[in-house]
Amino acid sequence: MRLFVAIDLPPAVIANLESLLAQLKPSAHINWSPIENLHITTKFIGEWPEERLPELTTALHALPPRPAIPIVVEKLGFFPNPHAPRVFWAGVHGGDVLTQLARETEEALAALGIAKEQRPYSPHLTLARIKTPGKQPALLQAVAKLSSLDFGNFTADRAFLYRSKTAPTGSVYTQVAEFPFRTGN
């Protein structure tokens, strides 16, 4: 099983991003993410044996309680940069609480033998992947003409374990388990 842990987006944010993608898609022939696949990854797990799934969900249920996380989705950018883009993204701002969730998830799963991420946690929504190297001038111009780079905000009160399956039309994500945040007493 190919797995990851993520926070879902509410319908209002999805609608704003869907509108954004409708405006930008004509400006670049790149691999756009399906709107239904947009999520905030807190930990990419990778391949995991199905028979060890209960061990994984137990570790995730044991994460420390936390309050709901206020999240803002705004701004657009490119990894590694606009001159040699590989990923086109929307920014996710959840402050120290979101970073702490990612760190605690990382630590809990490292105890099961899941490799730690080498790069610092950088929350974002992957809007597109760019397979062909080189600038995307039409996309950069279309982004520059946008009237707003604010795509909404929400309060996340749970995360999900997802399974990713490759299909001819792209990856299909299925929720495997839900992990509500519990506030401590």
Description:
The structure is a single chain. The protein is globular. The mean pLDDT is 94. The chain is α+β, with helices and mostly antiparallel strands. 25% of the residues lie in helices and 37% in strands. Strands 2-6-5-4-7 form a five-stranded antiparallel beta sheet. A four-stranded antiparallel beta sheet has the order 3-1-8-9.
Show the helix and strand layout.
Blueprint: E1 2-7, H1 11-24, E2 31-32, E3 40-47, H2 53-61, E4 69-79, E5 87-93, H3 95-110, E6 124-129, H4 137-144, E7 150-156, E8 158-167, E9 170-180
Antiparallel strand pairs: 1-3, 1-8, 2-6, 4-5, 4-7, 5-6, 8-9
Q: What composes the largest sheet?
A: 5 strands, antiparallel
Give helix and strand order, one letter per element, not per position. EHEEHEEHEHEEE
How would you classify the quaternary structure?
single chain
In whole angstroms, how far apart are the ends?
Answer: 36 Å
Low-confidence stretches: none
Give the beta-strand count: 9
Give Rg in angstroms. Answer: 17 Å
- Structure class: alpha+beta
Fraction in helix? 25-40%
Strand share of the residues?
Answer: 35-45%
In spatial order, strands of the major sheet run 2-6-5-4-7
Mean pLDDT: 94
How many DSSP H or I helices?
4
**Shape annotation:** globular
